[in-house]
Amino acid sequence: MSFIGTLKVEAKGDREIVMTREFDAGKDLVFDCFTKPELIKRWLYGPDGWSLDICEVDLKVGGKYRYVWKYLKDGSTMGAGGTYKEISEPDKLIHTERFDEPWYPGEALLTTTFVETSGRTFVTINVLYETKEGRDIVIKSPMEGGAAQSYNRLETLLNTLTLEGKK
Length: 167
Prior knowledge:
Structural class: alpha+beta
Order of helices and strands: EEHHEEEEEEHH
Largest sheet: 8 strands, antiparallel
Number of helices: 4
Strand content: 35-45%
Shape: globular
């Protein structure tokens, strides 16, 4: 399996992380994979050995989402959720993120944009943390590896959905 683009993670300013990844699929389908629970559960479970057991999405401005991941080895869980602030389907999604057991202080604001060129979609996720300390904790964590594995799974899912004629 080859992946069209690899995840790039960069610090920006004092409080921001920017993640970018290109996918070989149209932005409508990529947007669906970011917003439909039945699709999210198939790719957004972080590093191998985890599952996304709870995935609830109320996709409307002011609507909430909630994810609960489970570490398969010992059954421990990690939850997070937030509120949708802006939805411009299939171009942009803005929402907050807060973990149940915060591993970084405060809440983050995620702005995800989907730009399609010639059937490929370039996804940019800007994550704005409340503090520089929060951003630095995330940058130093193994987040990048888990996110990269999830986005590789998303690429595989997109290929499968495209082959099934859902592109």
